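>> received
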Amino acid sequence: MKNLPRKTVWLLVAAVTVSLFLTTWAPAAEPPLPTAGPDFTRGESIPEGSTHDWNLGPTGARGWMVSNKMETSEARQVYVTEVDQGAPAEGVLGPGDVILGIGDRPFADDPRTELGKAIGAAEAADGSLSLIRWRSGQTTTVVLRLPVLGAYSATAPFDCSKSTRIFELGCEALARKMKANLNAGNPIERSLNALALLSSGKPEYLPLVRQQVQWASQYSDPGRRELHSWWYGPINMLLAEYVLATGDRSVLSDLGRITMEIVRGQSEVGSWGHRFVQPNGRLAGYGMMNAPGVPLTVSLILAREAGVDDPELDEAIAKSARLLRFYVGKGSIPYGDHHPWLQTHDDNGKNGIAALMFHLLGDAEATEYFSWTSVASHGGERDEGHTGNFFNVLWAMPGIALSGPHATGAWMQEFGWYYDLARRWDGTYLHQGPPAARPDSYRGWDCTGAYLLAYAQPLKKLYLTGKKPSVAEQVDAGTARRLIEDGRGWSPRLRLAAYAERSDVQLFAGLRSWSPVVRERSAIELAARDGDPAPQLIAMLDDGDLHTRLGACQALILLKERAAPAVPALQKTLRADDLWLRIKAAEALASIGSPAMSTLPDLLTMLAEYDLQADPRGMQQRYLCFALFNQRGGMLSRSLDGVDRQLLYAAVKAGLRNQDGRARGSIGSVYQNLTYEEVEPLLPAIYQAVIEPAPSGIMFADGIRLSGLEILAKHRIQEGMALCLDVMEIDRWGKQSRIPRCLKALQTYGGAAQPMLPRLVELEQQLRAHPEAKSLASHIDLVRQTITVIQADQLSPKPRSLRDLAETGS
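>> returned
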């Protein structure tokens, strides 16, 4: 039996098994691999505090398995934690049982993957799922009977009877659940569940959908409570899709109200954060967050399609599209206003929803790119996600489906086991979460709607499920397989160990890939090897293919000083037509360091140039700020010796106007490396950068403002004194580090700051009355100390004024 195909084994077992007959298990000839984590067959227990168990597909059982660095690949046992009454596993499995394998084979790889695939095989055969069960010292083979659903087709969920049946059963179960408790779930769960029923196109579900639409139409959160931005997007999608699907315009006015609340909550650069913008027009806290931002934009597009008409809406959509399109061809859309994400092909589903967004906008190039990255993201990549992988699973299929049935089929052949393992025996879904010892932030979330939207794609009833024909080219089966291959070679635990097995020829081929992630992974491994790849990389810089030239730059960046021979070729590449290629060439020169210092005039000139038409967000300027001034590796971060001061001044002034707070912050290194005479021409620009915060990169925007305060204080510029108190903003995120730096800068003025004493007394009172007064005790002490320092200094010289400097022409 050992050498027979697994499906044949199950059929033979089923033939001699009456109902759920138990048979004694004979161990396989080869010994099982050592067990990672606790060995339950020896009486060991689940480690204290490790509470994340898993739904084990439609068996009705849940089980715990060991995880390590976001993987369960080292587990070889599944400890049964729970069995539902009436489920296939009832009477066969029970809490405390241990599943050791499938059929007659102990687990040899990853129990999650093996169980998921075994469930799919059983559902495609006669429904018999054979498991190796350990109970109270006895090891036996047990057989569970699952409903027969068939196998996923080569184009699943398109032309796939199994997908159709899963969707139908899921909708029936979801409808029963919603009828039993109309108000269950948070706004995301409720909206997605209603959208799933709406996507069926079945009129019998419309009363349930209308009830949820009525609830959603009343939504408003002017108080900007917790998860404010996260709720608005799915709610607005539901309302817009309902109007578009049914023609019922009774909720159009509420759709318009909610839509315009979203529009007016957008930042200057086209983003949203945890919450909408503050009254000052800036985002709070972490600043831009794309995970809620991209769905918000999709909801705006759908609202416009449904009939909301307002010029402000059009402008909001355009700003967001301009912001997000930058990432096409460069990596995944990141957490916020950060560098393109290059670790995985998708970052918590943002590429999937971005593919849908650009599809709705008719942008074929952006749609294809983000859809391809969605196809290439599977396995361990889909287990990843900030605070959990809920959105990574939710937005996967809507993005993949835009590349056509061959793309979805190849992805389901690769990753469909995950969907089968997540599906409960009643047809509903609960969030599984990533392989970690503890559950993530979405524990217990009802994910039924999220999964059913994937299976609804063939019905094409909603814009979220393919109602509008894809603007992207549909890939053939061969291309789909290659996209899946592009996603291999990385794991959360082993990282790029698989790339170490690739030959140099394969790595150079990877540098030519369409995928910036494959290029980066290949570059990392190539740079880690001995030898001199620089000559071949220099030749690649002259290639006619943009991907090849970008791959060469990515490798040269990682080679660092070993890439010194490439300096002339990289300097030439600074004049390339492509913006990102110019940026990557500049990053490579910065990485090379001293041997590339001859290119400084070119780099400083490029930073000072600003082409609003070609680069509306100043991205070239931003990345050149990092390349030149970043304290970690910037070419000029430690010394300005020999640098043309006029070129430097022009570059600094331009950089201090960049939209990104982090880019501005890197320029702080310049302040400390200039004498007063040298910094004096920059003082007006430094002052302006303090009083006008960057509109983006909010999390880092305080850096350059505080550096500016400190340099104004160091050189005793009068206007800096009041700013020390203005910038403090004791109710804003980041105050714990901001308040001390402001106070210490103010102390530098000594007695000259006496006009600030009344404000300091008022500040002390405000801090004592602050809701966080207890944690601000040391800050209150520092305020008292600052008052004492100022009062004790009677000999402080008069500070300089920017006005006087301007009048004297200094």
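>> The chain has 36 helices and eight strands.
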